[in-house]
Amino acid sequence: MINVRDLHKSFGDNEILKGISTHVEEKEVVVVIGPSGSGKSTFLRCLNGLETATSGEIEIAGMTLTDPKTNIHKLRQHVGMVFQQFNLFKHLTILENITIGPRKVKKIPAAEANRIARELLAKVGLVGKEANYPDELSGGQQQRVAIARALAMGPNVMLFDEPTSALDPEMVGEVLQVMKALAVEGMTMVVVTHEMGFAREVGHRVVFMDDGLILEEGPPSELFSNPQRNRTKSFLAKIL
Amino acid sequence: MEVIWQNLPVILVGLRLTIQYSIVAIILMVVIGLIAALMRLSKFAPLRWIATAYVEIFRSTPLLVQLFFIVLGLPAILPVNEWFGQLWYPILAAALTLSLNEGAYVTEIIRAGILGVDRGQKEAAQSIGMNGFQTMRYIVLPQAFKRMIPPLVNQAAQTIKDTSLLAPVGIAELVYKGEIVIAETFASFAIWGLIAVLYFILIFSLSKFSSYLERRLQVDKR
Where are the bilayer-spanning segments (chain B) (predicted)? Predict the structure, then answer.
């Protein structure tokens, strides 16, 4: 589903990603962990073209992102993204936040888009909030709407960029619950997070990044209980 | 009082022209400002250069000089009167010059409004597959527009006042008619007072309308 070969990304003279290669299978849930500044978010943002790779190759959802001929807008319809700060459209209602993509990008009729949106709201447990504005919802509720908004486009892959980092502790659970349900349904997911409980329980594979490189990867049970690299050990010692 | 009542019909003809020029200039300045603002934010460098040059030129020279130069100066070197007609050229040129001048300020208002929208909004729009146009049209501009209303209303008020500078180039608006009436009646206190009151009514109703507009947008769109 995702194939990354020797991905490099620099901002000016500052090289953030120093050659990332990895592979994500269909229906696989990959959790990316690592200290801040290690390039996790940049890596994730490269996967849907929000950041342009300096060099290397990315194949995702059957398209080659790094090929200049690829229609990036088309590609993004197949790659859902959930942001740390939710980024719901402030001027639109919850229902409109979810329907605007299907309506304006996929040209789906309003009635059909509304039906899909209501189904998704039920799925993320927010029936009855259709007419509210994002500001009227809690952080956890907003993040669940953001997940529904991404799902409304019918993506093949979902990318999560620290989806619970901006939330009050008591709201983390409700968002992880929705993500877990998605994983169980067989959605292919790449999740950057500090939630080690989620990584252990839901992740099929954990990728540890440090200083722009993948240092170590493997099933959560192995990586957490028996890390091979010293850097991984010291990071896990601090966070677990 | 007498002199006001007697000359009111003439003054009102001028007022009508002032209103017409104001409406045309306010509409055009927003259209021009939007285009130039999008050009200034374009990835394509030549578009940025053209828009920047436009804004700097019109902001850095007096409107009165621009009006003299384009309405009265250009016909001296170009057969514009033949192209547009002797009657129409000054009318079109005056309206366009005024609009271009105000549009330079509107460009900066709209550009600031667009840049003021959180970058995450744009990224979220892109992440659901919106192209540049859709992102602007459905996500960025509606949010930018709300915060642009107060400065745009300011600029519209300025535009109404600036139509008074059309008098020296021969457009028979409010000030022009006033001068004619005063030349005949010598009633400068009464007539200038009347003209000031008429401008005040125009601009005061504009600002009342805008606070109504702002309140409405505030209520249902937070």
Answer: 20-41, 62-80, 186-206
